[in-house]
Description:
Layout: H1 8-49, H2 58-67, H3 70-102
Amino acid sequence: xxxxxxxxxxxxxxxxxxxxxxxxxxxxxxxxxxxxxxxxxxxxxxxxxxxxxxxxxxxxxxxxxxxxxxxxxxxxxxxxxxxxxxxxxxxxxxxxxxxxxxx
Length: 103
């Protein structure tokens, strides 16, 4: 407020105005606190699992960061390649057995 208080009436009016402002702000604070109490779970989930810029989930960002790493990809390739080879051999054997039974 930039106007100067020069009389007692102006002072009392300003005190009353400030009390009203205080009560309004107090009510707004109470409303915000109630909203927080009722919605903190969903607010936490939204802030933790969604990025504000991209809309991508936290899990998606973490997955992309971890599995986008070249060393991690190489490690998975070392693990996956032998497993795929064994699975292919198993399928070949199974198909071979099935072919022998049909003959």
